[in-house]
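In this section we walk through a basic example: taking a raw amino acid sequence and producing a predicted 3D structure, encoded as discrete structure tokens. The instruction is simple. Fold the sequence below.
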Amino acid sequence: MFLKITKSNGYQYVRIVRSYWKDGKSRQQVIANLGRLDILKQQGQLKRLGKKLLALDGTDVPTLDELEELNRLCYGDIVYKKLWDKYQFTQILSGEIKDKRIQYDFLQTVYLLVIDRLLHPRSKLACFQRQGKYINIADIPLHHLYRSLDLLAEAKAALERSIFDRQRDLFHQSVDVVFYDVTTFHFESNRADDLKEFGFSKAGKFNEVQVVMGLLIDMDGNPIGYDLFPGNTFDGNTLLEALAALKQRFSIRRLIFVADKAINSNKNLHLIKAAGYDYIVSARLKNSSKKIKSELFDGQDYQEITVDQTTGEVTFRYKVLKDHRVSYRDEQGSTHQLTDNLIIAWSSERSQRDRRERERQIAKAEKMIEKKGKLDTKKGYQRYIATEGENKVIGLDEARIAEDAMWDGYYGIQTSETELDATAVMEAYHLLWKIEESFRVLKSTMRTRPIFHWTPKRIKGHFVVCFMAFVLERALENKLKANKIAASPETIREAIQSLEVSEIKLRGERYYLRSKQLPLASKILNVLRIKHLRNISIKEEITAQPA
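The resulting token sequence is shown next.
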């Protein structure tokens, strides 16, 4: 017998029904009509009936005193476990350690490190101390967390290759355009070694050692691969490794390489072409020839792209200088000639931004001038301070200010894709923000910093963990976007963190009461086709979810 809810004339009715077989078919017989559901709830009849049935069964009705909450646990890793399996991380890592004698659960250890980096980014020690918060992940000893980093450092190349191949299969990608940029990650230390070194810090941490990362992503923002360099490596000197990675690790034969002006040197442009690729890079207009500067400022042959409908003023224009010559003399004394297109563009929005930035620097320079002292720093605003003798401050450099003002709003793009439409080149170049956003995710959402490891191998292993986490996060973000669900990495993390259960003990048995989850968490489960938990579950039902 069972209770059955039926609808009639807009109301719900409760009946006691029994099932039976007749003529080879299942049939039902109504034993009793208990009445309208809303009235039964209002009068408390259902609760009294439940207690009476339990008493007839010889079962005592539990009281609140018998309920004990033991823990609050997160089961949100089931979201990333689904993607983990799609990328076949378990199989890849298993292959990397099959010939090694490992006396601990390496796969579970790496899984914990990656999940913790995604949901609660913190140090390995904090990860160890707060274990037991995931219902699906067993506790891992601290020294296993550290030892796994050494093995991960060795598995980097295999992981990158497999991730690249899987992304092409999963998202049906053809990689035609690759974005490349470089950033720095500093340590709370001034002790240098072969990897940690002093260098130009993009975070302004000049008194601390750092490492340099070169990152490759595709047009959808998916990471392709990365390399780490000693902290004193100049941005432009990282390119050779990136090109080698594209050819050797990923077997990419044809693509357009998009990068900022830090990569733009005649040597690097030659290296890109010699590798069989094309490039779209930011041009160094202020270092260009007199002829180019003359064409830039002459106001002729510009194509007006955008005009303000209210004022009639041009807000964006560009011109293409074809057959732009680039020459490079290598170490053997051979001269290499390249011919590309130089696109010169101007926008009113950029002009206003340049002017505001200059005015901000001038204001800082004026404060420095008020001190009437010697220049003792290397801040950018010093370019607007006129000096004499040994850095004696005498006032603002009005000539420098006027010269810089001439360049407001102008920027240039060099491309070897001479047959490609200029607007398509600019569109590709303007997508460079995606790699800046990738660095932001790595540094903030993934909290790659601060770094608490000191040996080069463990530092490399730490970045492998961050890279794997970034791959899973970006895959989920793109999956949601494909289903018209816009969500930032921060809101995604908050949503998955809300997938929690309360572990409750009742008469010696353990049950799991599902907590209220954020609406985005429900959408994520639906998109990935993961079954929602029942309100009350047993552990086997939760741990079976990822499969």
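Looking at the output, two observations stand out. The chain is about 40% helix and 25% strand. The mean pLDDT is 82. In the next section we compare this with other chains.
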